[in-house]
Amino acid sequence: MAKVIGLGGVFIKFKDPKAMRLWYEEALGMKTNAYGVLFEFNRPDAKRGFLQLGTFEAESTYFGAATQQVMLNFRVDDLTSFEKELRDKGIRIVDTLESYDFGKFLHIEDPEGNRIELWEPAKDEASDETSMPLA
Q: Phi/psi of residue 86, each to 5°?
């Protein structure tokens, strides 16, 4: 039987896709092309890495505005340093950096008001038992 083997992409509607690709490239350092943002997932330490498809209650306020139906979660290698870089670039930071057993989190907004979650996984992320909060 065929089955899903991983996350192939997250798709979001934007008022100005070209400007948003430029923002993702300049603000977050992501590689873009004519279709969106590209990034390669590797674990240099050869441990397993995980992506999560989060299922949230329809009434959840975790995404920010009630009109936002999707939120991106990006892995970051050094969230403390990245927060400073984002502040220096004038990126809207929604909350404060929080630490949990499974990593550090910070939320920002893109220029169209979409909340984005930044996550620095715990250094020992090697188990599929890792869980993230579903607020």
A: -65, -45
Domain count, the chain: 1
Rounded to an integer, the average pLDDT of 104-108 is: 95
Contacts of 25 (CB under 8 A, 6+ apart): 31, 32, 37
Within-domain flag for 79: yes
CATH number at residue 73: 3.10.180.10
Range of the domain at 77: 43-121
CA dist., res. 110 & res. 27, Å (int):
9
User: How many angstroms from the chain centroid is the CA of residue 66?
Assistant: 18
Q: Note if the pTM is more than 0.85.
A: no
Residue 100 CA to residue 97 CA, distance in Å, equals 10
Chain segment 59-74, per-residue pLDDT in tens: 889 889 889 989 999 8
Residue 64 domain flag:
yes
